[in-house]
Specification:
Bact_OuterMem_StrucFunc; two-stranded antiparallel ribbon; 13% strand; alpha+beta; transmembrane; four-stranded mixed β-sheet
């Protein structure tokens, strides 16, 4: 008889202890889940704050680069104005565009005499601004870019645009052109590039062939590793 009651008693004791133990386990599990969620939220918040800081730093670098470029463009515009040279400078890119029909005979790469005179006025001023003590370290390249319209084959236009750009660079660096301030520095930074018909001038979505036939004089700023990384990230 005692053994029977002992079994019942013992059984009742185990069932009585089961629910408190289960509640403790459940509370522990919920606490762990809560801690995991808090950790994830904290980590996510740190990622967001880190991303916002990175974006802010990138924007500061871009603003610095753009601000310097605009400053150089303003210097160029002022220098040409003071010398009384009528030149239209793109306020966004700083490029100076020349109409190819005024520079070269049709299908030719030899410079017209009147364009040589124009270069004699423009290049010394251009070099005096971009390659002075203040700016020369920030200038990576000075580019002469030849462009054509879409008439003819791409390869023919590529060769023509390259020849025209090269003839301009050759004349600028020649003895015929004469000496001017910073000519030796310009020699190390100037490049001739043919673009063929790859960058046409569009008006209302249609190519303006007269404007597409052109030569552009432009500059490219040097960029440190941080700037290059920002621009790479933007491209991606």
């Amino acid at each position: 008889m005692n053994s029977k009651y002992d079994r019942l008693f013992k059984t009742g004791t185990k069932e009585g202890n089961f629910w408190p133990a289960f509640t403790d386990i459940l509370a522990t599990i919920l606490l762990v889940i809560l801690l995991i969620l808090i950790t994830l939220m904290f980590t996510k918040q740190q990622e967001i704050e880190g991303k916002e800081k990175e974006v802010q730093e990138q924007q500061e670098i871009i603003d610095s680069l753009v601000g310097y470029e605009r400053g150089v463009i303003d210097q160029l515009a002022k220098a040409f104005q003071e010398e009384g040279v009528d030149v239209e400078i793109d306020k966004e890119s700083g490029s100076i565009k020349f109409d190819s029909d005024l520079l070269f005979d049709y299908d030719q790469a030899g410079l017209k005499p009147e364009f040589k005179q124009q270069l004699q006025q423009i290049i010394p001023i251009y070099a005096s601004v971009l390659l002075n003590d203040e700016n020369r370290g920030a200038i990576d390249q000075i580019l002469i870019e030849g462009h054509t319209d879409s008439d003819g084959t791409y390869m023919y236009n590529l060769e023509l645009s390259q020849d025209r750009a090269f003839s301009i660079v050759s004349y600028i660096l020649s003895n015929e052109f004469g000496d001017f301030a910073n000519k030796d520095i310009l020699r190390t930074k100037i490049s001739a590039i043919g673009r063929s018909e790859s960058i046409p001038i569009l008006v209302d979505g249609t190519e303006d062939k007269d404007k597409s036939r052109r030569v552009e004089l432009k500059f490219r700023l040097s960029m440190n590793s941080e700037m290059e990384k920002v621009l790479t990230d933007l491209d991606n």
